[in-house]
Structure formats: C-alpha cells, structure tokens
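Justification of computing resources. Each target in the renewal requires a structure prediction run like the one illustrated here; the chain below, 137 residues long, is used simply to show the kind of job we budget for.
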Amino acid sequence: MPVLTIFMRFLHIISAVTLVGGALTWRYAAIPAIAPLAEETRSKIGDAIAAAWRPFVLTAILGILISGVFNFLRKTGLTPAYHAIFGIKMLLALHVFAVLFVATGAPNAKRSRQLTGVAISGVLIVILSAVLRWLTL
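Resulting structure tokens:
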C-alpha cells in the first residue's frame, strides 16, 4: 500500500504542477513573447498553443481528481478548520479546471485574462495546500 500512496501523491503533485506551471508559462512567457506580432498571427499561435496543451490539461485534471479523492479518503480526524480550508481549495480548483477547459477550447480573445485568474487561483491553491498539510501534522 505505501507504493500506491506514494504514487497517488506524486500524481497529484505532478498534475498540479502541469496545470499551474503551464498556465503561468502561457500567461507570463508565451503571451508577452508573441505580443509584438500582428493580431492574426498572435491569434493563430494562441490557438495552436491551446490545442497542443489541451490534452495535458485534460489528463492533469483527471490525475488531480483521481489522486485527490484517494488522498482525501485516507485522511482521518479532520477538524472543521481543515474542512473549511479544503472547501475553499476545492472551489478554487473547480475554477482552474473550468477556465482552463474554456481557455484551451475554441478561439478565445479573453485567454490572457482567463490565464491571469488561473494563475492567481493556482497560487492560492498551493498556499492552501501548505496550510492543510500543516493542519494534519
């Protein structure tokens, strides 16, 4: 059982890194890098990035959901404070999932703003995860 537990923790972390790191890279590296290009070119490149990244987003979301349920069900003795913070974390995660699903979909003029929201929510999720880890020590 320890191997499965370690694997699920790894899957959860690598999936979160993929989503949050990809969103940060796309928003703060790729979008500014193509900003000087013509609008039509920027749109084509943005759509190509979205199409290439979409399978990773869907796989990472699936990985987070599977490993998250597994990890949560293994915990015992959780306090009301833990549940409150966990609930906030889940709402932020749902926001990240939904927005990345939209951002990697059809041509979208609001990707930059959407990815900014994902970046903020992603960083908050990481902070809340650290707090939750501290609460279970």
